[in-house]
């Protein structure tokens, strides 16, 4: 199962980013298209992303890449983007997009949001300039270069006796449970982050951490790293400042939630979320000997 926000299938055309003449030629291509955004939200028409032609004299276009040779761009957002929020209407609309379009939007939103948040040089504080087809900013005062960042996040299942740990975040929709997650800290491996987060949030100590899949998450720009691990025991000590609740879910519990069955013990994450992919992977892996 392909995680959401992956599979754009485009040539990112890194070779053009430092080629001003090549970028100009791409923008002048009559077939070139610019993704239509309302702030950071996509404009969707007929169930697909909406695009427009490049306007005469338009500058500072973010090069998303080439789709079958056609240059695709996104425009810089107007003003700051710190206040941008994702609501249920946006997430429902994204969930209905084809995979490749969801992935294109993720790229465009992440890089556009980065520009909105990084208009000034982190070294000297001067206003920075758009550079390299949108994939950098350069400071005219101190010559520093700044590049888009992606924050790694571990999202994980702990297994014990044929069950997995699921948790409920503060303020989530009624009945929704998911895998636990947390940011990887500086100087920490993925395996160490998985073990630390599970201990901090649920009091569960684990070993044998295994990687399953990954997903870009453009709110604002994270890389979700899905893992599974083995718990030493099933004792829980929930940090209620992080989680409202958590419990050990059986194979039958998870399968029922993923299927959206009436009376399921919990509501699963939406299909575009890596947590859904992770839970489905676990159910499929244990299908031959399900436990209740």
TrEMBL record:
Enumerate the SUPFAM superfamilies for this protein: Nudix
Q: Which domain of life is it from?
A: Bacteria
Transmembrane domains' residue ranges: none
Pfam families the UniProt entry points to: NUDIX, Zn_ribbon_NUD
The record's InterPro entries line, in alphabetical order, gives: NAD-cap_RNA_hydrolase_NudC (IPR050241), NudC-like_C (IPR049734), Nudix_hydrolase (IPR020476), NUDIX_hydrolase-like_dom_sf (IPR015797), NUDIX_hydrolase_CS (IPR020084), NUDIX_hydrolase_dom (IPR000086), Znr_NADH_PPase (IPR015376)
Any one GO molecular function term: NADH pyrophosphatase activity
Instruction: Output the CDD domains linked to this UniProt entry.
Output: NUDIX_NADH_pyrophosphatase_Nudt13
The UniProt keyword set, sorted, is: Hydrolase, Magnesium, Metal-binding, NAD
- The answer to whether UniProt assigns keyword Oxidoreductase to this entry is no
State what protein this is by name: NAD(+) diphosphatase
* Source species of the chain: Sphingomonas yantingensis
């Amino acid at each position: 199962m392909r995680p959401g926000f992956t599979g754009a299938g485009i040539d990112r055309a890194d070779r053009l980013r430092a080629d001003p003449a090549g970028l100009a030629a791409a923008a002048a291509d009559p077939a070139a298209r610019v993704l239509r955004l309302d702030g950071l939200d996509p404009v969707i028409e007929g169930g697909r992303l909406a695009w427009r032609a490049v306007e005469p004299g338009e500058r500072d276009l973010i090069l998303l890449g080439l789709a079958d040779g056609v240059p695709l761009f996104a425009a810089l957002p107007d003003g700051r983007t710190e206040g941008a929020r994702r609501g249920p209407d946006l997430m429902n609309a994204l969930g209905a997009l084809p995979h490749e379009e969801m992935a294109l939007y993720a790229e465009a939103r992440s890089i556009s949001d980065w520009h909105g948040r990084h208009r000034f040089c982190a070294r000297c504080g001067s206003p920075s300039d758009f550079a390299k087809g949108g994939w950098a900013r350069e400071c005219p005062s101190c010559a520093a270069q700044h590049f888009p960042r992606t924050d790694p996040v571990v999202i994980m299942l702990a297994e014990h006796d044929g069950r997995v740990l699921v948790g409920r975040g503060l303020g989530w929709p009624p009945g929704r449970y998911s895998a636990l997650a947390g940011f990887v800290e500086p100087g920490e491996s993925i395996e160490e982050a998985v073990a630390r987060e599970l201990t901090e949030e649920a009091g569960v100590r684990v070993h044998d951490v295994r990687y399953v899949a990954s997903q870009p998450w453009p709110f604002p720009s994270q890389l979700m790293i899905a893992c599974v691990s083995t718990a030493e025991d099933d004792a829980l000590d929930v940090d209620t400042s992080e989680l409202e609740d958590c419990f050990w879910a059986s194979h039958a519990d998870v399968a029922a939630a993923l299927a959206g069955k009436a009376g399921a013990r919990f509501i699963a994450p939406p299909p575009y979320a890596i947590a859904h992919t992770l839970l489905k992977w676990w159910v499929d892996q244990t299908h031959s000997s399900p436990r209740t």
